[in-house]
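Are you able to produce any protein sequence you like plus the matching backbone structure tokens because I've never seen that pairing?
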Amino acid sequence: MQRKLKQLYTLFTSAQMIFYLLPPLMVLLIVGTVAQKEMGLYAASKLFFAGPAAWALLGLLTFCLTLKFLFASPWSWGRSGIILSHLGALILLYGGGLTALTNEEGYLIVPEGQQSRTILDYHARSLVLLKDGQIHAEWDAHNLKAGHVLSGVDDIDIYIKSYCTNCDITRHDNVQENAFGMAAQVQLSEKPSEKRNEENISGVTFSVNNVEYILFDGFTKPLDIAGYELIYGRTQRRLPFTVGLVDFERDFHPGMQMARGYSSDIIVHDGDVNWPVKIEMNKPLRYKGYTLFQADFVEPAEGPSSTILAVVKNKGWIFPYIGTLIMALGLLIHVFMRVSVRRLFSVVILCMLASLLCAPKPAQAAGLDYNAFANLPILHEGRIKPLESFARIYLERFSGRKSIDGQSAIVWLSEMVFDPVRAPKRPVFKVTHPDVRTQLDVSETDGRMFSLERIMPLLSETAPQLNVLAGLRADELSSGQKALLKLHEDAIVFMALMRSFSIIMPLNITLPDYIAKDFADETDDYITYLDLQPYQTTIMDKAKAIAAAKKDDWESYDEDEGRTIALSFAQNLLIEQNQQNTVFKILPRFDDRTEWVTPWEMIVLGQGSPLNKERLDAWAALLDAYQTQNDVNWSANIKTLNALYAENPNVSDKRLSLERIYNAFPWSMAVMVLYILAMVLAARFVLVPSAFTFTAAQGAAIAGVILHGLIILFRIYVLARPPVGTLYESIIFVAFTAVSMGIIMDLKQKRGFALLASTVSGAMLLIIAPYFVIDGESLDVLVAVLNTSFWLTTHVLCITIGYAVCIVAAMCAHIHLIRSAFTTVAGDKLALNVLRLSVVALFFTGFGTVLGGIWADQSWGRFWGWDPKENGALLIVLWIVWALHGRHAGKLSQPLFSAVIAYLNVIVTLSWFGVNLLNVGLHSYGFISGIAYAIAAVTIVETALITWLLIKTHKRKNR
């Protein structure tokens, strides 16, 4: 017996136990994550990650680590890194268990000027009996099962007839007797739950004194007993203090409805204590064991705004902070003591410090200088950018091209806004979907580009379908319907752009005499809407009076009356077409210099000012210069506009000019070419070593990294934030980090393998990066929760550096497998590189993952929420831990270990991009067309390649 116990003890404290435990845990993680697409995050998390399997696996893992730490981890300086890493992991596991058992979550809604202490639970429901408005009894939802009797309260027995978490409401064949209200007409039954738990409509059918009732979530039902009511809804809890809202503020990105920050000025009332506090995104309040986070807001059409504060009571909240620090310290010690990679870390530190520093051109039209015009500022998607960037975005959105008919984007834009007669004739809409082309009645010989004039009949014909299609979810639309909706949306934006200056364009109309006399001395031979705007009320009143007096008797209208009616109609038509014109924002609001307006918004919103009048006059003169092709006046008015815009403190000519330089040349393409050149030279050096080839490969890679680094620094400067905030930015940063690591490693080793692996990685990443640019804009502003330089600099950079190290490690593992399969050359040093890189990858992915948990705890009070992106990051960590423990336990030979690390390419791909397939959770960046096929291709190719290389290696060794 003692011998068996000793064997069990040895097994439980060994690395092989971890090696056996992690695969089922990873399978559970993958299945539970994939299930979220169909079940929703809450239901899948409850079933898979809070179920018996998860508790059993995590409990056994915790037990094994505890035994190992307490009884089988003799302290020594050489083992200190591993011991501290295990201790940090244990603290995280114990903290997670404590949180799972004791955590309470809910939210608090407080209107401005009012107080509240009532917390509403996100998920739990309860039935509450009120007597004279006071809570008399309460039952949790798990008591509301059909056949149960809730009794013992003032001799009131409540018979539960049915309960559903998501109710299907069907009508009774006949009106039910002894039923109150809705219960007489309908019955409830269970139907499949919605993906989002918040969208489920739960309800209960019950009877009291033989009278049947139905209650839905959030409703109150008076009983047929004086003074008694029943409420069914979210379970309520009470804070031990009261929160009063003084003021709620939200800060929008200019010109957008995307908030860049929320904040609530509150007063905590606790007995005699009245404590003013400001709660902001990522800056919660911790008080008396509760943490209050800024979560959301309610802004009604009338009345005061309300803040929504997430409220969390978590006894284990401190564990992740302590565990993270200890585990990070342990991994760092282990890396520096066991792995001589100080040079490798220097590039990583350089990358993180840098983040703190907060093709032939198409021909242009002859005569006019478009370079200065391209530099004029416009507010678009939350930031001020040069007109050229704006033009490129919309031309690429409509046509998928960077130029059209040999014209650059800025020349096309000038035609759009200055020549509304020619613009709709130019084929600028790309139509490729077969269904839309069939409706358009075109063949292959008609090409793929069509003008607004050509597609207008189709748009008019399908306009009645828009309301129906717009009401459907994205997954309910066919690809043809999505293409048709996009065509309509693009056409609306196109027409808004085309009408941007209709406010100052000539009206082809004859004025009535009572207005014409006021313009007798004008030098211009045309009249615009803006000229007539002061007369609008007069014209409207006269038109109404004429119509009321003479109605449809057109022959009785005199000349002036006819002109008045025509002028009123023209004005009303322009207003109707343009009062929602919000695209071409070129005029700063006089009451808020961060917000800009379009020429039409200036009139509709009353944003006229002497300075904006000067700006609009200069634009009108520019319009005239374009239409007359007067290059002297064109250049003069651009200078005037530049001087007028210079008075706005948010306009930086340096930023605008730098962005134009960035747009002027395909810099990323140049970097990619340099990386491919370095890759070819490095491959040549590996096959046929030569000092010249190695130097040339290093030179090409270094040149690429320098240029790549300048691109990243430009983005930091223009966006005034750390370099990684979007999926696209993560790709270019990972590529930069990967190649930088390869250069650093091979400067010492001079073997070419690290450089080859890293340049292959960098080139491949830059090839796919453009596919992750949405609507042609890669310089994006961020939503409120991401708008924090600290966490973007720490968690996001750490995890992306981890991706880079994983990919380089995987590519080195591929090279090792290839050499093992086809050569007899010893690959010990390359195998050692794979091991070292794996340890470094574990540090950055592990530390980055738990840092993300701390950020989540700071933002919404939950260290871990089983979000797909969180699970993907955890999968990478578990995969590397599994590989390292398998190697340490002797379960993975060197070829098998290299194969497992090589497969990191697939694991990282699933974690990094696969989340977009699920479209679930806080980290979903939106579905990207074709990504499913790309991920499937990577998985199939890598699986086949690695398996084949393993077989070849095995056969070679057995010869």
In short: Residues 586-647 form one domain. Residues 339-366 have pLDDT under 50 and may be disordered. The two ends are 45 Å apart (CA to CA). The first strand starts at residue 104 and ends at 111.
